[in-house]
Amino acid sequence: MTQTSADQLQRFSFDDVAIRGEVAHLNQAYQDVLSRHQYPQPIAVAVGKLMAATAMLSANLKFKGRLTLQIRLPGNISLIQAETDEQGQLRAIARYDENQPSEELSFEDGQMVITIEPDQGQRYQGITLIEGGDVAAALEEYFVQSEQLASRFWLMCDGQQAAGFMLQQLPSKRTDDDIDAWDRVSHLAATIKQQELLELANEELLHRLYHEENVRVYPASSLSFHCTCSRDRLANALHQVGKTAISEMIEESGHIDVNCEFCQQHYRFDETDMSELFPENNLH
Predict the structure, then answer these.
(1) Count of CB atoms within 10 A of residue 250's CB?
(2) Which of 7, 20, 229, 268 is the most buried (most CB within 10 A)?
(3) pLDDT digit string (tens) for 235-247?
(4) Mean pLDDT of 103-115
(5) CB within 8 A of 98, min separation 6: which ones?
(6) 3-state secondary structure string, the chain?
(7) CB count, 10 Å around CB of 208?
(8) Is the pLDDT of residue 284 over 70?
(9) What is residue 267's predicted lDDT score, i.e. its pLDDT?
(10) What are the CA-CA distances from residue 238 to residues 74, 104, 190, 227, 257 (Å)?
């Protein structure tokens, strides 16, 4: 096999039928997330799959902003979350009870929450039940409900790299459409093996699947790990707590320590930072 190593999102479409698709590969970006956490294997695999799904959904961001995909679960694993911006910059996290490690991760009775937050504009949120414990099926149901578009998702991860494959049937007013195309194209995609999706270069994978179809492949866009935390953002959050409460906290322990739960970056604020936290008090 020709192994793919680039972190990238590849879009493709079919010239003869109204169907589009995407392939996402995450290698270094996924490892950048895992290097900051010590997730048990089942959680690490779930994080990788969710990152691949989020990467493919980033194609829907036609504006500056963020898209967040959350899996909310009952039990000791409460949350798995991945985020991306319009440039394919991703981060991810899982919250779980470390005193109750889970040998198996079940998505039964969970919810999938998709949140879209434009830098300018109205925030949107959609919630779908994860019926049957299948996140890919929940994504498919979301697109049927929210956009009336038939979609198929395949998400795979081996703990080292992650990948996703998506197909979507587009609206068409053509009278000569191939009515069997959606079933045929979907059926062929369902034959993808995990090793193929994770390791084959996109062109080779698409040729194996659709050598009898007219497939148009578009330039790939890069994916990467990036955390949006910053000292300024945390200072703003502490400002919202209020000067009195922050002063009392600093007086009690000498400083306030904050760790970003996504990237584990450490930030410290002490008495000398009060003017940074509350600049309005510097005005005379």
Answers:
(1) 18
(2) 7
(3) 888 888 888 888 8
(4) 84
(5) none
(6) CCECCCCEEEEEEECCCCEEEEEEEECHHHHHHHCCCCCCHHHHHHHHHHHHHHHHHHHHCCCCEEEEEEEECCCCEEEEEEEEECCCEEEEEEEECCCCCCCCCCCCCEEEEEEEEECCCCCEEEEEEEHHHCHHHHHHHHHHHHHCCCEEEEEEECCCCEEEEEEEECCCCCCCCCCCHHHHHHHHHCCCCHHHHHHECHHHHHHHHHCCCCEEECCCEECEECCCCCHHHHHHHHHHHCHHHHHHHHHHHCEEEEECCCCCCEEEEEHHHHHHHCHHHHCC
(7) 13
(8) no
(9) 83
(10) 30, 38, 49, 19, 11
The residue-averaged pLDDT of 57-77 equals 87
| Strand-by-strand arrangement of the 224-225 sheet | 124-130, 110-118, 65-72, 77-85, 89-96, 224-225
Alpha carbon distance 64, 137 (integer Å): 28
Strand partners for 130: 110
pTM: 0.86
Q: Are strands 77-85 and 89-96 parallel, antiparallel or unpaired?
A: antiparallel
What are the chain's domains?
8-225 (3.55.30.10), 231-282 (3.90.1280.10)
Instruction: Give the pLDDT confidence score for residue 176 in this predicted structure.
Output: 59
